[in-house]
């Protein structure tokens, strides 16, 4: 994971925060809010993914594996907390970083989706077939979009050098 310093785009000062940032005082929001239109639409899209149809455990496994692949210390820090709240153990969260860790078939599938998308930008036919057995069409689409979104967000966070809150 990369340690990020000296933000290229500083977060808004607290006196410019909207009600959402006041309730969620994280640098990701305070930084992206500098572009009000994109910030508003990104929050809507990200919120739809965080409150979608996927089980919380699956969602957080996919996000953590993506954060690991993308070297996003910011995403890792925040989604470690959310992963614990979703029922992942600390050992499972650490195992997300290990390619050879033992997982249930269900968890392995979620991690494989993140791996395939990271390494190939696509899913293998075998991974897609397994997804079809486990998720409905909406769930399959949502999982792919979730991984893609967090890969994009990792790039933005790293490029803007958004710092993890103390």
UniProtKB/TrEMBL annotation:
<keyword id="KW-0560">Oxidoreductase</keyword>
<protein>
    <submittedName>
        <fullName>Alkylhydroperoxidase family enzyme, contains CxxC motif</fullName>
    </submittedName>
</protein>
<feature type="domain" description="Carboxymuconolactone decarboxylase-like">
    <location>
        <begin position="36"/>
        <end position="100"/>
    </location>
</feature>
<dbReference type="GO" id="GO:0051920">
    <property type="term" value="F:peroxiredoxin activity"/>
</dbReference>
<dbReference type="InterPro" id="IPR029032">
    <property type="entry name" value="AhpD-like"/>
</dbReference>
<dbReference type="Pfam" id="PF02627">
    <property type="entry name" value="CMD"/>
</dbReference>
<keyword id="KW-0575">Peroxidase</keyword>
<dbReference type="InterPro" id="IPR003779">
    <property type="entry name" value="CMD-like"/>
</dbReference>
């Amino acid at each position: 994971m990369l340690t990020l310093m000296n933000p290229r785009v500083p977060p808004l000062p607290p006196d410019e925060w909207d009600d959402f940032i006041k309730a969620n005082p994280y640098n990701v929001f305070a930084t992206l809010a500098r572009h009000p239109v994109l910030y508003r639409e990104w929050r809507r899209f990200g919120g739809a993914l965080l409150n979608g149809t996927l089980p919380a455990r699956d969602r957080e496994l996919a996000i953590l594996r993506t954060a690991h692949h993308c070297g996003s210390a910011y995403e890792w820090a925040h989604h470690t907390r959310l992963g614990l709240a979703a029922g992942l153990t600390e050992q499972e969260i650490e195992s997300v970083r290990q390619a050879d860790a033992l997982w249930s078939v269900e968890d392995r599938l979620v991690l494989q989706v993140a791996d395939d998308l990271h390494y190939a930008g696509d899913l293998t036919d075998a991974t897609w077939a397994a997804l079809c057995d486990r998720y409905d069409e909406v769930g399959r689409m949502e999982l792919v979009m979730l991984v893609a979104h967090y890969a994009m967000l990792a790039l933005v966070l790293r490029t803007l050098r958004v710092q993890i809150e103390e």
